[in-house]
């Protein structure tokens, strides 16, 4: 083979040095290609107690691990030679348009993860045309969220407290602020055992113990943000000195029943969705009450450990009640492909909790934008590779599960 000395002219087209980005956060976020990448950045940037509060689940964390595993065990069945140049990733959900088949799940204590908190999520959701859900335990007020997402869709998540009047006062505020959907969470009669939180001595607001002071050293930015912005307060309550679990136990009402649900329904003027359905029987019972939707969810594995995997329940529940109610699915979603699989098996919509929070912890509002972009691109690419141009074309034939465990709870 003849060799020659390369000329600079020949090298020029090969050289593709990236233009340096001066904004470090932007560079870090642009390098994140998956939600798992965002999670790694989030872990580096966030004190252990706050990261573990988000990342962790109940007891041995089997519910969460199994839910994520169920999505990994998906096998897709593509159709070929379709024109997929133009696709539509949106449709109508609970009486309104969504640009993507996912929205932001309600999460408590969000400003603890990153001080921008719910406002970052609501703004990013507004830009993406997807709903934002505010938790009863949210760290921004109903009105602040409305201001951050003034023309988009906001959903309010209700925990029925022992103090009924206070919880209904919140619901009235949400209705007045134009929130179009109420998610009533029913899987927290008591708090789950989040062992990481107990071991970390996690408290709200974070206490300055020797451990947290030492932890502050590698995370100066997080602590600076926390201490230099307005003190952590809640949409619905005042400061609390104990652990999260203690707080939740004093708040939640273990006496709530189906009668209370019927009562809440009679009080709320807009769409009502029950979040935390984990059996077909319960799905049927709430559909009989006339609710507009259900969320198949085990609370991201944060309540009953070894609870049914929502994705496994989906085909049966969709077959039995899918014609009468809209089915939303959450728990374990880490990619747009998971979302597409859920829609193929009968979900009208999905919610993402940690996927959004990893983005928030990795880079505030820009990090949430990045998380939504990653998921949206994965949704679009998966649809195209499956040979479909609309969500309505997705069908059970597009997905099987390698382990074949379909009938759990059915
Ligand atoms: C840090 C954190 C806080 C949460 N707080 C609430 C809450 O206040 N109310 C609620 O209904 N669900 C809450 N959830 C559950 C989420 O709404 C959702 O069901 C769950 O995160 C979905 O699982 P994923 O995180 O795997 O997406 C929380 C989840 C996380 C991770």
Distance separating the two termini: 68 Å
Low-confidence stretches: 406-410
Strand content: 5-15%
Taken in chain order, the helices and strands follow as HHHHHEEEEHHEHEHEHHHHHEHEHEHEHE
Summed up, the helix count is: 18
3D structure, described in words:
Helix content is 44%, strand content 11%. The chain has 410 residues and is of the alpha/beta class. The strands form 3 sheets. Strands 4-11-10-9-8-7-6-5 form an 8-stranded parallel sheet. The protein has a two-stranded antiparallel sheet with strand order 1-12. A two-stranded antiparallel sheet has the order 2-3. β5, α8 and β6 (154-158) form a beta-alpha-beta unit. The longest helix is centred in the last third of the chain and has 33 residues, at 354-386. It is globular and about 85 Å long. 50% of the residues are buried. Flavin mononucleotide binds at residues 53-54, 105-108, 135, 137, 157, 185, 275, 297, 299-300, 302, 330-333, 351-355, 357.
Characteristic terms for this protein:
single chain, alpha/beta, 8-stranded parallel beta sheet, 18 helices, 12 strands, 11% strand, disordered C terminus
SSE map:
Blueprint: H1 8-11, H2 24-31, H3 35-45, H4 48-55, H5 62-72, E1 74-76, E2 91-93, E3 96-98, E4 102-104, H6 110-113, H7 117-128, E5 132-134, H8 142-148, E6 154-158, H9 164-176, E7 181-185, H10 195-200, H11 210-216, H12 220-228, H13 244-251, H14 258-267, E8 271-277, H15 280-288, E9 293-296, H16 310-321, E10 326-329, H17 336-344, E11 349-352, H18 354-386, E12 399-401
Parallel strand pairs: 4-11, 5-6, 6-7, 7-8, 8-9, 9-10, 10-11
Antiparallel strand pairs: 1-12, 2-3
This protein binds flavin mononucleotide (FMN).
